[in-house]
Amino acid sequence: MKFLAVIGDPIFHSKSPRMHNNAIKSLNLDGIYTRYHLLNPDSLKDKILNLKLSGANITLPFKEKALEIADFKDSFAQNIGSANTLCIKEGKIHAFNTDALGFLEIMKELDNIKKALILGAGGTALALAYVLKQKDVQVCVTNRSKERFKDFKAYQTCLYQDLREFDFDLIINATSAGLKDESLPCTRELLEKILPRSRFAFEVIYGKKTPFYQLCKSYGLRTKDGLDMLLWQGVFAFELFFDIKDKREMIKNTMKEALQLA
User: Residue 47 and residue 7: Cα distance in Å, rounded?
Assistant: First the structure.
């Protein structure tokens, strides 16, 4: 039996167990998927090995640590600088980034994106910036502190208070602001300069209409939350966990069915 889990902080909100367990049941596979609340990033590797996991999805705020602890890293994860999917084979950890693949599916729905602003500079922001750059989109990453910018040398960066360019086609909240509370990723004043000039907004958080999401909608932006990205990254992770190559549509449908359950 494969023992799988999603690991993060917080983790109670995660719909990944529902998605993966429904796919496991529908495909008649031998496995179970649960969640694990981790507080100390330095214990990530020990927990994964001690729990005897066959694989794990890694969510905020441990995606960079997930790449760091891996014995083998695929080129996608290495180029991005973070991993959200780990497969354990013979005691060795293999790292992948299916967040980026999930966002690629979402990009198919957005037309004529030339400039994008990413709020936040964590592991998810790295994945999204990489995908956008591959699509020839000009990317600016803004954050409250400079420390995280060391991972974004290939992109234009600035602090929130130093942002002077406000014309962007797409605005992305890649922070956890609004997940545990009712905060915005940056000041309302800054967002009120940016949003009227934008066309699309993407909120990586799902399952909650965050203040960022609501503010974007109030300005008439076409706004999506992270549910579709969650769905697609889950499909790609599931294929890796079970080494399945020819049932993508069935996996997607069973996971989507699980997400639609009350």
Answer: 10
- Look at residue 110 in the predicted model and tell me its pLDDT: 87
pLDDT reported for residue 207: 85
CA 49 to CA 3: how far, in whole Å?
11
pLDDT at 219 over 90: yes
**Residue pointed to by tokens 């069935």:** 250
CB-CB contact of 179 with 205 (8 Å):
yes
User: Stretch 109-120: mean pLDDT, rounded?
Assistant: 94
- As annotated, the active-site residues are 63
Give the Cα separation of 36 and 26 in Å (integer): 24
Report residue 31's pLDDT band, with 50, 70 and 90 as the boundaries: very high
CA atoms within 13 A on the CB side of 205: 26
Helix and strand counts by DSSP (H, E) for the chain: 10, 12
Distances (CA, A) of 155 to 107, 129, 134, 139: 19, 8, 12, 6
Q: For residue 95, give the nearest of 81, 80, 106, 84 by alpha carbon.
A: 84
Cα-based angle 49, 73, 157 (whole degrees, multiple of 5) = 115
DSSP secondary structure code for residue 131 in this structure: H
Instruction: Please tell me the distance from the alpha carbon of residue 38 to that of residue 83, in angstroms, as a whole number.
Output: 16
